[in-house]
Automatic annotation (TrEMBL):
Residues 1-19 form the signal peptide. The lineage of its organism: Eukaryota, Fungi, Dikarya, Ascomycota, Pezizomycotina. It comes from Zasmidium cellare. Residues 94-116 are annotated as: Disordered. Residues 95-104 have a biased composition (Polar residues). The keyword Signal applies. It comes from the Eukaryota. PANTHER family: CHROMOSOME 15, WHOLE GENOME SHOTGUN SEQUENCE, PA14 DOMAIN-CONTAINING PROTEIN. This is Uncharacterized protein. Keywords: Signal.
Length: 384
């Protein structure tokens, strides 16, 4: 087997000026995440859940790092997770035919129009006065779009009333659920089809579960055409579970919000950055990155170089990387030394004309080492 610790050391020494900027090789190697769109339902109540067990995802990370360390750590590659089977309701944008309601059992009343839905004041009033569920933070209020492309999609339920607390409770019962989007949707009462291309509408209140935080920017799903029927959204509110985990053996995670660490070289001019892993379509979890960090140390400890030297992962920065409004994955950057918050200077980067930003960023250090300063220099020399 290749001498991993040595490879790590050499790569670190030879790496370019700012190796911790977004690793485009790692990002480009990712496969697209299948689009999950929420089925447009007619009148009858509907629900589906697609729970994902975070604990088993965490142990999968550890096993993957131990089995393929070079791929997983310095080579900065992602783990291929089992992607939850999503409901793939294709968007029906076939709008070529003229409205034909000759065979409609459910003909729309004269005032049943998209415009009338848009002008319904009670949707906005309800959304604006809705209370934030206990243990959640409000992220957006009264949007005309629902969240999409934030991953993983964990299902939805319809509700009899716009009840944010009930929606949050349902989310709490879905493994991996971290945020909710509740909204009014103008749905067709029956599936539009030949002879009934624009049926009457029914207003459905949807409560959607997401495995990562909903964001204001993600409310881009403003509806769709189904034959000649226009699906619309109103009064869309987003709430995120305020709890974050504290992985055992690590200090209390420190929030960096929408920024990421770019650590300088240590006092001897060496990079302390060990590499990156990106998790896709898994519930966002600080524990996933902690698992990668600890497993890297475990592997290195078992594979010292000829002088007995090995590196350990002592610190990590994990966040959600966004390609404009769409989540790319959970980024997990590993370091062999702890750095203070002052080095959180990366607020995003442009690439091929698209803006990549960060969110839900946390930095976490090993609580055994427990140093808020760079270390590793000879003779106790401090780096400042
Ligand atoms: C679709 O059809 C409706 C009604 O016939 C029309 O108002 C609308 O402009 C069409 N939309 C598109 C995108 O072609
Ligand atoms: C939502 O749509 C309504 C009706 O078209 C409009 O009055 C309102 O300004 C829109 N709100 C947003 C946030 O775009
Ligand atoms: C938030 O998430 C935590 C951890 O997953 C969970 O235990 C809790 O039930 C969730 N809901 C609230 C309201 O805290
Ligand atoms: C976190 O970042 C978002 C933008 O991504 C910003 O709207 C928000 O105000 C920030 N929160 C804090 C506490 O800095
Ligand atoms: C923290 O670092 C110490 C020293 O390298 C190591 O023994 C311990 O396993 C690390 N803790 C975790 C949770 O990785
Ligand atoms: C960003 O999104 C655009 C549009 O979907 C896509 O063409 C591009 O490949 C994405 N880039 C990366 C690095 O994911
Ligand atoms: C971190 O890695 C660099 C580069 O390999 C090395 O010079 C430094 O001593 C390491 N720090 C620790 C604490 O092992």
């Amino acid at each position: 087997m290749k001498d991993f610790a040595l490879t790590l050391l050499l790569s670190a020494a030879l790496s370019s000026a700012l190796p911790q900027e977004i690793d485009w090789d790692a990002v480009d190697a990712l496969k697209p995440i299948p689009t999950a769109s929420i089925p447009v339902v007619s009148a009858a109540a509907a629900a589906t859940t697609l729970p994902i067990n975070t604990a088993s995802a965490v142990s999968a990370v550890s096993s993957a790092v131990l089995a393929r360390p070079s791929e997983a750590i310095i080579a900065a590659r992602h783990v291929k997770f089992h992607v939850a089977r999503a409901i793939l309701a294709t968007r029906d944008n076939d709008n070529s035919t003229a409205t034909d309601n000759s065979k409609c059992a459910q003909k729309p009343a004269a005032d049943d129009t998209p415009d009338a839905f848009g002008q319904t004041q009670s949707f906005a009033q309800t959304a604006l006065k809705a209370s934030t569920p206990a243990g959640y933070n409000q992220v957006y209020v009264n949007k005309n779009g629902s969240s999409e492309f934030i991953y993983p999609y964990l299902g939805f339920t319809t509700l009899d009333s716009y009840d944010t607390a009930k929606c949050a409770k349902r989310c709490d019962a879905v493994s991996g659920c971290q945020s909710i989007n509740i909204y009014f949707e103008r749905d067709p009462s029956v599936e539009p089809a030949a002879g009934c291309t624009d049926p009457s509408s029914s207003t459905v209140i949807k409560c959607v579960y997401w495995g990562s935080p909903v964001t204001d920017a993600s409310t881009t799903n403003t509806g769709q055409w189904r034959k000649n029927f226009k699906v619309l959204i109103a009064g869309s509110n987003g709430y995120v579970n305020a709890t974050h985990s504290k992985p055992p053996g690590y200090n209390e995670p420190i929030s960096l919000n929408n920024s990421a660490i770019i650590a300088p070289p240590n006092c001897r001019g060496y990079e302390t950055y060990m590499g990156v892993k990106i998790f896709q379509n898994k519930p966002f979890s600080i524990d996933l990155c902690a698992s990668a960090c600890s497993a890297s140390s475990e592997y290195n400890r078992a594979h010292p170089d000829k002088t007995g030297y090995f590196q350990t992962c002592q610190f990590f920065n994990t966040y959600i990387l966004y390609n404009e409004t769409q989540a790319v994955g959970q980024y997990c950057a590993l370091y062999n030394e702890t750095w203070p918050k002052d080095f959180a200077t990366n607020f995003g980067q442009f690439r091929n004309g698209r803006k990549f930003t960060l969110g839900s960023s946390w930095m976490v250090s090993n609580s055994t080492a427990d140093l808020d300063k760079p270390r590793g220099c000879a003779n106790g020399q401090t780096c400042s």
